[in-house]
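Researcher: Please translate sequence to structure tokens.
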Amino acid sequence: MDPLEALSQSTREFETRLRQVTEDQWDRPTPCTEWNVRALVNHILLGTRMSVQLLAGDTRADVVAQLGDDLMTDSQDPVADFLALATDMQNGFATAGGLEGTVDHPMGEIPRTMFIGFRILDNATHAWDLARAIGADETLDADLVSRMWDDIQPMAGGLGALGIFGDSASGDVGDDAPQQTRFLDLVGRRP
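Model: Translation complete:
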């Protein structure tokens, strides 16, 4: 699965779960203990908007100044808002040279190929989080999981130190467990 296909699939994974959120589920807790469903969706909207901005050439300072925004406050349709931003992000990566060079990410200057991997991982992992929170199907596309598993292996030993993957791997999931279970455990989820 190439990076653009993986990004598109990760977008579908999140969209599928987002479409299932009912009005009474916005305050439900998620596996990301600091966020309820509403805050998790806002996080994805912010990350997707940030991606569009960075791909358009905005600077780190420009996007960091807006990372605290609450995009859910004025949203009449979070699904439509997500899809509009996701389409712009997909188009930004798909343009000629969209996967070449670097972006001025809040973490520093990073290759666009790494950046698209972050977006794939964020969409898909939070799709699982959202599914868990609302009681929806938690199964992610197997090819997408395989790609993310391969992509994250070079960082596997240091994920816990990053502080963005919860407690990182539990050490309780064997090599014979399904790949999705092993992947989720590695990124701090306990399926």
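Researcher: Any highlights?
Model: The helical segments are 3-18, 37-55, 60-64, 78-94, 112-134, 142-152, 159-162, 179-186.
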